[in-house]
Amino acid sequence: MVEFVLLTHAGQPVSIEYQWLNREREHTPLLVFLHEGLGSVSMWRDYPQTLCDAAGCRGLVYSRPGYGRSTPRAPEARWQPDYLHIQSWQVLPALLDALGIEAPCWLFGHSDGGSMALLFAARFAERTAGIITLAPHIFVEEITVAGIAAAREAYLAGGLRQGLARHHADPDSPFWGWNHAWLNPAFRQWNLEADIVGIRCPVLAIQGEGDEYASMAQIDGIQRIVPHTQLLKLADCSHSPHRDQAAAVTEATLALLRSVGFAQL
């Protein structure tokens, strides 16, 4: 069941859409799912439930401000190059506090959410048990800019907007927030390499060999900065490994959890 909690974001009250998975397993570890740049609670489909069932744990899925059924972005608001830092260092901790989550949690992030998982783990080591990051970005590549520019054309043509309208109360809110931010010339300097130094928790970084938004330099770069990072590079896989290669992602995630003594496995 989807619920809502009220937070303060950018000085304004915002309603956050969230959903508990296996909430009755209150003494099990928690996986928090961080969605992609155009994602939401519903866009994860059934993968979070499938993974939590396989791991025997609880899950928390939520839509960031501007996404899903959470409070939309104001039409005049322009997200700046630090928007993922704000989501990772301000909004996510506030959400965990509002929901009474005190114990360290596991973060499972995709794309923008994968970058958020890294940022959160670096800043809040005491609140992070480990992270699984799928198709994350730690710097901007030409392939990324080209892919986002192509998404803009698809949205203006109407097909992409129609699809997003099934998952967002106001599809213009997430799309233009994300698209304008990444295509802003100032975003070319965006880089997380200095921000993720010192991550101590277990890290699994996953990327498809056919990723249309990034090269393997992204997860190779994570391993260079955080040497204990485990990498999984998937053939026949695009920007969404949990959709294209769900079984492989699940097995790699469970293997990581087993390796650190995850009690349920």
UniProtKB/TrEMBL annotation:
Q: Say which domain of life the source belongs to.
A: Bacteria
Q: Residue ranges of the AB hydrolase-1 domain? A: 29-168
What does UniProt give as GO cellular component? membrane
Which Gene3D superfamilies is this protein grouped with?
A: alpha/beta hydrolase
Q: Which residues form a coiled coil?
A: none
Q: What's the protein name? A: Pimeloyl-ACP methyl ester carboxylesterase
* Originating organism: Rivihabitans pingtungensis
